[in-house]
Amino acid sequence: xxxVSQHPSRVICKSGTSVKIECRSLDFQATTMFxxxxxxxxxxxxxxxxxxxxxxxxxxxxxxxxxLINHASLTLSTLxxxxxxxxxxxxxxxxxxxxxxxxxxxxxxxxx
Amino acid sequence: xxxxxxxxxxxxxxxxxxxxxxxxxxxSASQSFFWYRQDCRKEPKLLMSVYSSGNEDGRFTAxxxxxxxxxxxxxxxxxxxxxxxxLCVVRVIGGxxxxxxxxxGTKLSVKP
Lengths: 112, 112
Description:
The complex is a heterodimer of chains A (112) and B (112). Chain A is mainly β.
């Protein structure tokens, strides 16, 4: 199946720092990618839709100035968590769509 | 009412057993349906799409009842490697492009 990669797989950082997560589609071009967040024992929740060459579309309740998304090319989208706080600690997963959606392996963020 | 509802389980079954999971969805505009599996601390992986006519992939059979807004997954001859959380996933017409609504998942544990 289609392959989506994410980097890094795990981040531990201090409160107040910014963290950048990369999502790449390895064997196909993706004009649209999606960023999800999953807290323990909870469903995946869509945060935003990343559109190549234009602004991302954020879901209600997700702060666009805190979660910066850049979709610079057809194979790369980045999510930057700015001024991270402990409540931002979560499992962040990106995905890209062919017929179904394929997910990256996720990034586990821990903010101390 | 939750958009996608699943019995969280856990379902504890012996190897070789047949197990069935159910899922209901509330939005009649739902367009596409999928079962994903998610292993602990990993990303969701597509198991199979679900079609109105029902579809089978090896030991896995998925059924969709649009009138009842009900989806099922049947696993025959359970293997230890089937232990995971099974996510019922629905795409809604008019949602963000490719937006998926996830159930919280049903946990399956297959014992020797």
